[in-house]
Design brief:
The structure holds 2 protein chains of 2 kinds. By secondary structure, chain A is of the alpha/beta class. Chain A has 8 helices and 9 strands. In chain A, the strands form 2 sheets. A 6-stranded mixed sheet of chain A has the order 5-6-7-3-8-9, with helices on both faces. In chain A, strands 2-1-4 form a 3-stranded antiparallel sheet, covered by helices on one side. The longest helix of chain A is centred in the last third of the chain and has 18 residues. Chain B is globular and about 75 Å long. In chain B, helix 4 packs across helix 5 and helix 8 runs antiparallel to helix 9. Chain B starts with a helix and ends in a 6-residue tail after the last helix. Helices cover 84% and strands 0% of the residues of chain B. Classes of the chains: A alpha/beta, B mainly alpha. At the A-B interface, helix 3 of A face helix 6 and helix 7 of B.
Amino acid sequence: MGHPKLVIQNLSKTFDKKAVFSSLSLYINQGEFVSIIGPSGCGKTTILNIIAGLEKETAGTVHIDKIPGYMLQKPLLLPWKTTLENVMLGLTLRQVSEKKARQLAYDMLKKFKLSEYANYYPHTLSGGMAQRVALLRTVLFNNQFLLMDEPFGALDALTRLSMQMWLLNLWQTYKSSVLFVTHDIWEAILLSDRIYVLSSSPATIIKEVNIDLSRPRKREFLKDKKVIAIEESLERLLLSIQ
Amino acid sequence: MNLKTISTIGPAFVLFIALLLLWELFVSATHVSNQILPSPSNILQAFLRNWQIFLPHIQQTILETIIGIVVAIVIGIGTAVLLDTSIFIRRTLYPLLVTSQTIPIIALAPLLLIWLGFDIWSKVVVVTLFCYFPIAIAMSDGFSRIDPELLKLFRSMRASYIDTMRLLKFPSALPAFFSGLKIAVTYSITGAMVGEYVGAEKGLGVFIQTAANAYAISLVFATIFVTTFLSLLLFAIVSIVEKLLLPWHRK
C-alpha cells in the first residue's frame, strides 16, 4: 500500500473568531475510498478547500504529494468549449501542448464511452452527462487523488445511482484515492471503504466506520441486513447531533 | 432571412412605415411649408439629389467614428482588466470613472479642438469619450459576475493569471462586453458630430450646420435620417459579430 495518500493532523479552522472545526485528524490510504458525512454547515467543504490549497488552515498539518483533482457539485463546464476541450482543461493549464492534450482527452472519453459527445457543447448535455464530463476533466488533471464535494447532490435519484456506479468503475480503473463529501448516508455506504462522521460546529470526528462489503459494489448490497444496520446507526447518530 | 427573424423585426418595421405615412399625410393635409416641416418623400428627394455632396461628409464621420470606437474598445478593456486586478484598485478607480462620466463632453469638445487641432483627432477623442465608459463598465461588470465556483475550479488547478484571463474571464465577460459595445456604438456617430459641430472642415456635423444656415430644412432632416441609419447599421454589425462570436450564448 505504501504511504497514505493524505494525512491530516490536528487540523483547525476558525473563521471570524468562531471555530469551524478543531483538531481533526484523518488519513486516506493509497487507493482508498473515504467519505465524510455530517450535518450541513459543519465545514466539510472547508476541509476540502484546505486540502486543495484554496484556504489556509488556522492550525495543524496537511500532507499530500500532489495537487489533488477537485470536483464540485456543479459540473462547471465552460459553455464556449466542447466536451473534449473541457476535459483537457487541466492539461491546458499545465501547459501541455494542445495536440497532446487533445489526444489524451480523446483517449479518456473513448475509454469511458463518451467519445461520441466529444464535439458537443455543454448546453446540449444532460445534467448527468455534464457531471460525467466534469469527472473526466478532474481525473485527467490527477487520476491518483480526487476530492469530491457532493458531486451528485444536484442530480435526480436515478441519474445519481448510475453516476455512483460509473464513479466506482472509474475509481477501480485508476486505483485512485478519493475523499468524498456527502450528506447522503446510503451513498456513503455504497461507495466507501471508510466513513468519517463529523459533528456540527465546531466539528470534530465523532465516529469512524469501516464498510466491509466486497468489491465491486452492487446496488443490491443496500438491501443487506448488515448494511441496513449500519445505515440506521449512522442515521441515529446524525439525528442526535443535529 | 427566415420567418422567425421576420416575425421579430416585422412589427417594428410596420410601425416605422406607418409613422412615415402618417407624417406624409399630415404634411400634405395641413399644407405646412417645406421650410418648416418637409415631408418624408421630400426629404428622400433632397437626399437623392445631393448624395454626391453628402458622400465625403459621411465618409469623414464614419472614419472618425470607427477609429474612436476602436480606441475606446482598447482603453475600455484595459480599464476593466485594471479594475479586476484587486478590490482596492476597483474601489479607488470605479467612483472616479463614474464621476468622469458626468463631465459634459460637449463642454470638452472646444478644449479638445484647441489642444488637438482642427483635423480628425479632436473628433476621434470625442467619439472615444462617448464610447469608452459603457464599454469599460460593461466589461468590468462582466468580470465581476463570473461564477465564483468557476474561479475556484481554476484556482484548484493552479491556473496562471494569464490563463485565467484567456480561458475564463475574457470569454465569460464577452456577452457583457457586447451589451456595452451596442450602447456605445449607438452614441458614437452622434459623438463624432458633436466634435465636428465645434469645428471641422468635413463631416455630417459640419454638413448639418451648413444646411441649417442655408435654411435647407429637407437636407437637415436628411442628415438626421442618415445619422440614424448609420447608428442602426453599426448596431446591426455589432449584433451580427456578437452572434458569430458567441454561438453558445444563444441557447
